[in-house]
Design goal:
The protein is an all-alpha fold and 193 residues long. The protein is built from seven helices and no strands.
Length: 193
């Protein structure tokens, strides 16, 4: 057998590599082109006009209706809060009611404590709700009630009637992503590059 010279073998290997590189580059380019064609094209976002986004404030009549609704809810909540306070406080002394050791057994004491905690929780929630209603009344006076704090558009009336303390649309509250109108409004607010 005849042995090939090391230089001749190296030259042959180099020649194979040179022809392989252009073929590999062409295959990579072809794959990239194919992938680009196969990828779904992103539809351009339609930009809504300012008129399509709707008004940016509720009328005085609508604000009066919301104010009446909020005042009624506030009064109802304050009455509930007074009832809760009566159950946890002795009206004659003004001190918190504690269980009477004369008739409470050990098991009943645990139940009584749990009921008191639940009553305190309801009272705390009612107090926070009254504060939120007061903030909503201040927004009505400032004529900014119902304006979304995220995009600046109006929160739908239906949402405000259901949750008068709402400051964003339900979609943003649940997902953290503005609704379609909100995204369009935010896109209009961004400066063009």
């Amino acid at each position: 057998m005849v042995k090939k010279a090391p230089k001749a073998a190296a030259a042959k290997t180099t020649a194979k590599k040179k022809t392989a590189k252009p073929a590999k580059a062409a295959a990579t380019k072809k794959t990239a082109t194919h992938a680009a064609k196969a990828a779904p094209k992103k539809a351009p976002e339609k930009v809504l006009s300012r008129a399509a986004l709707g008004p940016h404030a509720y009328s005085d009549t609508e604000l009066r209706k919301f104010k009446e609704l909020i005042l009624a809810k506030r009064q109802e909540t304050l009455e509930e809060l007074d009832t809760l306070k009566e159950t946890i406080m002795d009206t004659t002394t003004g001190e918190y009611v504690s269980e009477s050791s004369n008739y409470s057994l050990h098991m009943e004491q645990g139940t009584d404590a749990m009921e008191r905690e639940k009553t305190f929780l309801f009272a705390s929630r009612s107090g926070k709700f009254v504060n939120q209603l007061d903030e909503a009344l201040m927004r009505i006076e400032a004529k900014s009630y119902g304006v979304c704090k995220t995009c600046g558009l109006l929160v739908p009336k239906e949402r405000l009637e259901a949750v008068p303390t709402a400051t964003t649309c339900a979609e943003f509250k649940n997902t953290g992503i503005p609704c379609e109108r909100g995204r369009a409004a935010l896109a209009r607010q961004k400066p063009a590059k």
